[in-house]
């Protein structure tokens, strides 16, 4: 990890609330894995004060670029929309521990909500590269927010969309879909990101079937490198519950071990 | 040219090759890959408590104008783990280690200092007297001159290590506390810890920090800290470590001019991981520009007009 | 819809049609052409002193991260001029006038309050107890609970006007001072004045303020003030006026949720002359959005999780 | 006075340290006079925190534009260089009391230093409009900083330049020039801005000859409208020395009355 000056190649609005940014990652000579994140300085001056953490949405190893998909939320992400191609931005990372696809997982289910889709997209990409069959349930407020579905489909993933707009995103329906897809596709591992409610659902469902899985968590951060203990969450360990750092031991954790509140 | 600059500073018997070090809680060996720790004046790990502690509810940090509020709650693995695993990790570097201690009672401060003080890898102890006195009224030790005196004196009796009292800025008169610490035998004063603050999300109507209140750090508090350094400098001869809101070398020099012999950089590390190195480089450049050969000649050299009233 | 909103608040017998007013020293009739003063909840002119005063050396203001430092020194034309020329100027408006008083001694506070209190154009008195006690040790009255008590009690004895004590945030325990003022008979508390600060130009090595130190105002101090409002609210039943760093209606609502019944806007007026009007509009919009019919139902309505430790 | 949203028409660097900005002033329906100033919000967000005061450099009444000439000094003026044509900026004013040219002053001498030239340029323009003969001594570090000389010459002013670069800007030489120009042009009134040293010189020289004059002062400001008393200076009044506000009673004062320190 390092604070890299990366050149913005493109930064465009892709839907009402989402933006997509591609940066040149040639100078990063460390390995980057799906599920890791970068802490981005969103403005040149003092505003916003802290960096903002973003997962990697796509890693293009040949063309040496990485991509981010971000939701415009507050001051930091509003500033980010002002990045222009050609500009060098200050991107700190790669940070944390990403997903790990075990050899035996030949068929995986992803359950993502909202901007959690950005995080799981990189995993779908990796699955495609490793010829792992990938099925994804993507949940969002509206179809407009589900633009990343095509990216996942591009990677060969089977995508099921649920939204408030269509009245399909309620817990019951998602539970039904999860059960159905677990069966239909002989799922070996489950992954989730973006919603506490859906994560609990996935945790229970996977546990019932004895299926392993991983979850990517979000927490407000200070240092993003593990020194300040701002970003903790609880995980079950051999000796009881441990408080661990999302930025350092995570953001990806074993689904079965995380204490979801 | 920068070769001939004298940058070394002393706090009691603690000798540092330069005045730049991290602030406790905003530094750790997870940063070792980012720059060479051997470049620093000293290393200051996160405050340690006697027993393991879980820390506070999340969110533990939030952003405010010109800074952040934190309420970590001193998450700690306890003293034995610290002695066995953390100190040795820092002992690898050729830089003095300042151990920061938080405790719930004066006895605990003394007990911990005695143990830590015996470790040859430790070069000084920073007493985080900004933490609450659980046996008293829950106010920080450093909010009360008598308690601060008693605390430092007790610790002084059990260890020969140089003692740095880390003051809390949440007081009516930082001078009074500084004097109490000096009289009790402190070797240096850290001015200061964070300022107690609170932020509310007006939409959820919940505090933005899980623990409701926390300490504000960052440039927003710098002018308050600079004022306190200047005030302490006027009443005490102890070396001062300036801490609070340093983002760059200009800020560090401002604190040195106000009266600080050394500086600690905290929150800035989160924004620019090379902050400390850049602060040090900037200090050197300033010294060259203004032909200052010894950093100690800058300490407290703010030019106060003689006509100034002493009442503010 | 905004027609049915109840925005009026009371501080003792002072009745204001809405909770938004200017902070003393950052408002004056020179602003009358910028917006209609009749829109405000109250008018608060600059603090007046008994005798004319020249004020401090320039520069009297400087910019810092998220705010500014000022040390004006309460330049004033003295009480007779105030009674004759300034009060009548504000009396033209159909809005209560809160006269702010600064004095060097308790006797002077009482003497001035008695005179000002008799003017029918005045609806309340704000006692700026953040100013230094020249007969004592030079510290502000508001830094000492006993002095604050004595001051308020003395003034209470000479006038029937509602009394607002404007507290200084430069204290260890704002709660202690708040309680003293309440016990002495204050009708309301202003939380708070500016925080003592200092900035140094590292190139000239001179303080950036002619008077060396001054008070910091603006958004940088807001989280500290919000914390103090919340603390005071927990120990006092008096209505609180929140003041310090309000730039927009979100900031004002944050202070109301923390426990303020009304708010004062100071520095923001310098940046956006329509700040106060926009704060008021924004409060109304928030009330409509969240279906709050009476502003008083928002006061102190921050949601504190029950598990919270009370120690910070 | 009011906070007007004014459209930037141009904003260009004109020399190493100076920038020139023209804004559309159509919506300002108040009168604007030379010597008055505007308090400009230099950035959209919270940085810089305070507005920055700038004199009017040129008033183009027909085309309804005003111009500023500014020295890039610190955070505020650095931000101002980022204003782009088409952008609306927040300009508060017009503020303060400007210069007043009396009928009988048919020949005036201006003495300006550095960015003080910007302030006196508007006066030279007014002089030209009123057919008043205008002579100016412009002092600066380098010839590069004396770009406004041409503007003044454009108004028909006789311009004498002195610089550190040429070794001509020392007090003795300026004193000599002032004396000489006073005589040569039968000067009726003297104006100065931009340097304490030169202002004292002008004050003494004018006083000796019994010539009236005006001076434009600068002081750090809070409100810029007269309520905060941040910007005071001392002037001699009938009852002794008074502390007055640069933003309200000034920034232009009678030269003979100002107490220069
Ligand atoms: C490991 C990780 C990966 C993430 N990946 C993505 C991603 O790929 N795409 C995306 O759109 N968002 C992602 N997020 C969330 C993203 O960091 C926040 O949306 C963003 O910080 C909001 O900043 P803001 O200034 O726009 O919003 P504000 O709400 O104004 O932010 C205020 C403060 O709260 C913090 N904050 C707010 N929301 C979050 C959050 N969910 N997590 C952590 N801190 C938060 C901000 O960092 C900032 O300090 C990720 C978060 C984490 C922790
Ligand atoms: C009435 C008046 C008219 C002016 N006209 C012009 C002009 O036409 N062109 C021009 O280039 N400059 C002019 N100035 C000076 C200009 O205001 C400052 O150069 C500018 O404020 C510097 O801001 P900064 O952020 O770039 O510099 P910084 O030095 O970073 O500013 C820091 C703070 O100090 C204040 N400050 C610094 N210098 C001055 C100063 N000389 N006067 C008042 N406040 C100052 C700033 O406003 C700011 O609050 C004028 C000043 C006044 C008072
Ligand atoms: C996340 C965080 C954790 C901190 N933990 C500690 C601590 O354990 N002990 C301590 O004495 N100070 C602690 N501090 C305070 C810092 O050491 C420092 O005094 C303060 O942050 C002001 O400096 P800054 O503005 O440079 O950050 C912490 C600060 C932050 C931001
Ligand atoms: C220039 C200036 C002058 C002030 N003068 C006074 C004063 O005369 N009396 C007083 O009680 N407070 C005075 N204050 C403090 C303000 O009333 C207010 O308490 C403080 O500025 C915090 O609020 P703000 O952040 O909204 O400005 C002054 C503040 C400023 C900036
Ligand atoms: S953000 Fe500092 S430990 Fe995770
Ligand atoms: S700047 Fe406020 S009175 Fe002049």
TrEMBL record, chains A, D:
Keywords of the record = 2Fe-2S, Electron transport, FAD, Flavoprotein, Iron, Iron-sulfur, Metal-binding, Transport
Cofactor, free-text remark? Binds 1 [2Fe-2S] cluster per subunit.
Q: Which residues bind [2Fe-2S] cluster?
A: 223, 228, 231, 247
Instruction: Extract the GO molecular function terms from the UniProt entry.
Output: 2 iron, 2 sulfur cluster binding; flavin adenine dinucleotide binding; metal ion binding; oxidoreductase activity
Pfam families associated with the record = DHODB_Fe-S_bind
An individual GO BP term: pyrimidine nucleotide biosynthetic process
Q: Where does FAD bind?
A: 52-55, 76-77
The record's listing under PANTHER family reads:
DIHYDROOROTATE DEHYDROGENASE B (NAD(+)), ELECTRON TRANSFER SUBUNIT, DIHYDROOROTATE DEHYDROGENASE B (NAD(+)), ELECTRON TRANSFER SUBUNIT-RELATED
The molecule here is called: Dihydroorotate dehydrogenase electron transfer subunit
The species this protein belongs to is Planococcus salinus
Lineage, broadest ranks? Bacteria, Bacillati, Bacillota, Bacilli, Bacillales
TrEMBL record, chains B, C:
Where, in this chain's numbering, is FMN bound?
24, 46-47, 128, 166, 218, 244-245, 266-267
Write out the annotated subcellular location: Cytoplasm
Tell me which UniProt keywords the record has, alphabetically.
Answer: Cytoplasm, Flavoprotein, FMN, Oxidoreductase, Pyrimidine biosynthesis
Segments traversing the membrane: none
GO annotations of cellular component type:
cytoplasm
Entry note: cofactor:
Binds 1 FMN per subunit.
What processes in GO biological process is this protein linked to?
Answer: 'de novo' pyrimidine nucleobase biosynthetic process; 'de novo' UMP biosynthetic process
The UniProt record gives the binding positions of substrate as 46, 70-74, 128, 193-194
Instruction: Provide the protein name.
Output: Dihydroorotate dehydrogenase
* Annotated source species: Planococcus salinus
Phylogenetic placement of the source organism: Bacteria, Bacillati, Bacillota, Bacilli, Bacillales
| Gene it is expressed from | pyrD
């Amino acid at each position: 990890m390092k604070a890299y000056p990366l050149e913005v190649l493109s930064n465009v609005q892709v839907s009402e609330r989402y933006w997509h940014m591609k940066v040149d990652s040639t100078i990063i000579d460390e390995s980057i894995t799906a599920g890791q994140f970068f802490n981005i300085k969103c403005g040149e001056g003092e505003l916003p004060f802290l960096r903002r953490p973003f997962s990697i949405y796509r890693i293009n190893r040949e063309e040496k670029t990485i991509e981010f998909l971000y939701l415009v939320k507050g001051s930091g992400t509003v500033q980010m929309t002002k990045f222009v191609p050609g500009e060098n931005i200050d991107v700190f990372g790669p940070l944390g521990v990403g997903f790990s696809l075990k050899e035996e997982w030949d068929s995986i289910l992803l359950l993502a909500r909202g901007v959690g889709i950005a995080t799981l997209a990189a995993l779908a990409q990796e699955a495609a590269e490793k010829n792992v069959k990938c099925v994804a349930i993507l949940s969002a407020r509206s179809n407009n927010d589900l633009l990343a579905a095509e990216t996942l489909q591009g990677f060969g993933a089977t995508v099921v969309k649920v939204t408030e707009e269509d009245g399909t995103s309620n817990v019951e329906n998602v539970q039904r879909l999860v059960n159905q897809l677990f069966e239909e596709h002989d799922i070996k591992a489950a992954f989730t990101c973006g919603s506490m409610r859906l994560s609990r659902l996935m945790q229970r469902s996977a546990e019932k079937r004895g299926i392993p899985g991983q979850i990517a968590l979000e927490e407000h951060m200070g240092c993003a490198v593990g020194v300040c203990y701002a970003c903790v969450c609880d995980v079950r360990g051999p000796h009881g519950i441990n408080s661990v750092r999302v930025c350092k031991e995570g953001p990806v954790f074993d689904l079965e071990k995380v204490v979801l509140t | 040219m920068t070769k001939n600059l004298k940058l070394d500073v002393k706090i009691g018997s603690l000798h540092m090759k330069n005045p730049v070090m991290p602030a406790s809680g905003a530094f750790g060996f997870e940063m070792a890959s980012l720059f060479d720790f051997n470049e620093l004046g000293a290393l200051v790990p996160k405050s340690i408590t006697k027993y393991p502690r879980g820390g506070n509810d999340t969110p533990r940090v939030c952003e405010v104008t010109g800074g952040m509020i934190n309420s970590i709650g001193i998450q700690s693995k306890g003293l034995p783990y610290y002695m066995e695993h953390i100190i040795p990790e820092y002992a690898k570097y050729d830089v003095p280690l300042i151990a920061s201690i938080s405790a719930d009672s004066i006895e605990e401060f003394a007990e911990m200092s005695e143990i830590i003080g015996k470790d040859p890898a430790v070069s000084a102890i920073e007493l985080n007297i900004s933490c609450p006195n659980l046996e008293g009224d829950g106010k920080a030790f450093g909010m009360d001159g008598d308690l601060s005196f008693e605390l430092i004196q007790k610790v002084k009796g059990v260890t020969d290590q140089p003692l740095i009292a880390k003051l809390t800025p949440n007081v009516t008169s930082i001078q009074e506390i500084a004097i109490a610490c000096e009289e009790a035998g402190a070797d240096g004063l850290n001015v200061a810890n964070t300022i107690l603050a609170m932020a509310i999300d007006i939409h959820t109507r919940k505090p933005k920090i899980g623990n409701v209140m926390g300490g504000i750090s960052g440039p927003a508090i710098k002018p308050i800290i600079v004022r306190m350094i200047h005030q302490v400098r006027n009443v005490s001869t102890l070396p001062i470590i300036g801490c609070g809101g340093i983002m760059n070398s200009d800020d560090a020099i401002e604190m040195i001019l106000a009266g600080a012999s050394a500086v600690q950089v905290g929150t800035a590390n989160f924004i620019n991981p090379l902050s400390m190195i850049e602060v040090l480089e900037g200090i050197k450049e300033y010294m060259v520009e203004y032909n200052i050969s010894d950093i100690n000649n800058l300490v407290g050299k703010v030019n106060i007009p003689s006509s100034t009233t002493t009442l503010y």
